[in-house]
Amino acid sequence: MDIRSQADVFASNVRQCVGQHRKLPVLLRQIVVAAIFVAPCSALAQSGGWYELTKSTINGSGATGTGGDYQVAGTVGQHSAADLAGGTYSLKGGFWSPAVATPQSPTADPSGLAKTRFISFSIPQAPGGAQTALRVRLVSLHHVVPPYTGGPSIPFTSMEGQVRWVGPPVQFGESTSNPTPFYASSLQCTPHYRDWSTVGLLHVTGSAIVPNSIYEVENVSAACVGMEASCTGVSARISVSTTRWADVEAPYNPPSATVQPDVGDISALVNKFRSAPGAPIKARALLTGEDGLGNVNIGPDLSFGHIAACVDAFRGKPYPFTIAACP
After folding, report:
1. Considering the entire predicted model, what is its pTM?
2. What mean pLDDT, rounded, does the chain reach?
3. Fewer beta carbons below 10 Å: N end or C end of the chain?
4. Is 67 part of a structural domain of the chain?
5. Within a domain: 284
6. What angle do CA 38, 44, 45 make, to 5 degrees?
């Protein structure tokens, strides 16, 4: 299509738009006509014969202005820069859509000591004390090898793939005679955002922390609030495992194939009950809970109930608790 034909088509568009607004007041019609030359009323493609005039856009440029200690980055012509979301996908709108920073990945417990009812990790210090949430994915739940000799284990396969969130951290003491402080949290169904780097090593428990299981932990940016399922501001995952039911001392099963727990585990819990030097920390010693879900009460000193649970496990009795479902 030659220049004259393009001009004819454009003039036709102008006459059509003006006709649509002929009944408007004179001043308003003038405004409409002026607007036509900036953004035509119809952006439809034009075609005829072997020629086609496709859709096009008028793009404004942008630049960066600097002065002294300040800098401004600009873009001309941005329109409708809203965010869109649907299902597991999200789309950031605008020429200068903000990038979501990837938070620091959790760090596994440097002691390397496994636990039955706790998983342990820490969060490296974040620039400016950035707030994040800790997401725990239930990867593999309670697949017991070798099987319990006193009965079948409770199946939790239907909950694999679900997520839980680490709740607010609380400081506890190891015992009345040993006030060494530590931080522990319980799992919950909703995210809890805070600067986790101030906590240090964190021990996490809850009904979903069960023996012979594998979990993945990741750090989620506060920029993901309300769209955690699809947000990209998420750290790399770390994998954390739990030991066989009531296995609190090495050798641990898994990875060892030895039958656990044994008398060494019972003896270790007796030492913790007596607050003897060298006894295991609470995160390794606390086994049983206060309800049918096995939710652990972290505050009190270790009671005989935990030793009794270890003796039952030594006799082959299966893990007795269930996992709470999220709404």
Report:
1. 0.71
2. 83
3. C
4. no
5. yes
6. 110
